[in-house]
Structure formats: C-alpha cells, structure tokens
Amino acid sequence: MAVLVGKPAPDFTVPAVLADGRIDEAFNLAETLAGKYGLLFFYPLDFTFVCPSELIALEHRIDAFRERDVEVIGISIDSHFSHNAWRRTPVEQGGIGPVRFTLAADITREITRAYDVQAEGGMALRAAFIIDRDGVVRSQLINDLPVGRNIDELLRLVDALQFHERRGEVCPAGWQQGEAGMTPSPQGAVDYLKKNAGKL
C-alpha cells in the first residue's frame, strides 16, 4: 500500500454529483480544491450497509467541515447515476438523502488505483485523505470494509493540521481544539510533558 502523506494528491477528472444535486460530467479535483483543504472519503458501494451510516455522519458535520474551508468529496466505483439515485432515496428507505457534498464516480477505478486503496474485488477500502491548501496529502486513514470511520476524528485531524499551520506548534497524542500544543524541540517536549503527561 502506497503512503501518500507528504506527496501531491493525485489529480483526477470524473463524472460527479455535486452538493446541489447537479451532475458534472468532468469534475476535477485540483480545480475544485484550488487553495482549499480537501477530504477525500472513499467508500465501497452505494446502497450498502456501513456506507450510508458514514455518509450520513459526514452530512451531519458538513457545516463544521465548511467552517474549516474543507471541501468534502465522497468517492466510490459506482456511477454518477447510482450516486444520484442514492441521494434521492430517503434515509428511512436505505438512502442518504440530499447530502451537501460531492459524490465522485470512479467507474474506471482510476482514482482508487491512484490512491492505492483498491480492495479485492475492485471496490475501494474505507479510506480518508486530508489534503492541504497546497494540494499535498497530510493524513491518510484506511479501514477494512467492515469497520466504519469516526467522522469527529477526521475533524480533529483537520483542526490539528490547521493549528500547526497557524502556530508552528505540534499536536501531542489526543490533542483537541483549544488545548495546548507543543513546541517542536527537546525543551518543548519536556515543558509539555511536565504539565500534561498524567492526562495522556
């Protein structure tokens, strides 16, 4: 499995259903991000089991991602027509409803291969990639198919990345927004641990 952290996020152009429900036959990642943060959220298939719980959880937190200037893009190997049908299916009937983020159609599996998250059988693993404003991958999390992701943890990672960019400090284990960071030096580690080691 390739590690993409620290490398430019592979670009792609594919059909997609946009946040407002329109279909874009040539949705492009680089153009969409252009100075924004990005969350690429790979999932196996539309109309399945764990997947709708994850996408609904994303929808419930979409305003929090937008406040952080993060463009959320769901990706599976389904067609944009399938994505559209899933969005039009009410949650009570196994759909995801009109989620307010893009669903990209990786029909040719080019994105899944480029990010090296293809599972046996061709679908994507449950992968999440956080991309910074320069188009560089800063975090990659990959779960096996039966294990759903924690969307609040993805928000925490975005917060940690943005805190580091603003302050130059690093984020110790379990860091949450509003907590102290650590100066990236031997003395900074000593100072932080003196005050916080018991809470780790």
TrEMBL record:
<keyword id="KW-0560">Oxidoreductase</keyword>
<comment type="similarity">
    <text>Belongs to the peroxiredoxin family. AhpC/Prx1 subfamily.</text>
</comment>
<dbReference type="InterPro" id="IPR000866">
    <property type="entry name" value="AhpC/TSA"/>
</dbReference>
<protein>
    <recommendedName>
        <fullName>Thioredoxin peroxidase</fullName>
    </recommendedName>
</protein>
<dbReference type="InterPro" id="IPR013766">
    <property type="entry name" value="Thioredoxin_domain"/>
</dbReference>
<dbReference type="Pfam" id="PF10417">
    <property type="entry name" value="1-cysPrx_C"/>
</dbReference>
<comment type="function">
    <text>Thiol-specific peroxidase that catalyzes the reduction of hydrogen peroxide and organic hydroperoxides to water and alcohols, respectively. Plays a role in cell protection against oxidative stress by detoxifying peroxides.</text>
</comment>
<feature type="domain" description="Thioredoxin">
    <location>
        <begin position="3"/>
        <end position="163"/>
    </location>
</feature>
<dbReference type="InterPro" id="IPR019479">
    <property type="entry name" value="Peroxiredoxin_C"/>
</dbReference>
<dbReference type="Pfam" id="PF00578">
    <property type="entry name" value="AhpC-TSA"/>
</dbReference>
<dbReference type="InterPro" id="IPR036249">
    <property type="entry name" value="Thioredoxin-like_sf"/>
</dbReference>
<dbReference type="InterPro" id="IPR050217">
    <property type="entry name" value="Peroxiredoxin"/>
</dbReference>
<dbReference type="InterPro" id="IPR024706">
    <property type="entry name" value="Peroxiredoxin_AhpC-typ"/>
</dbReference>
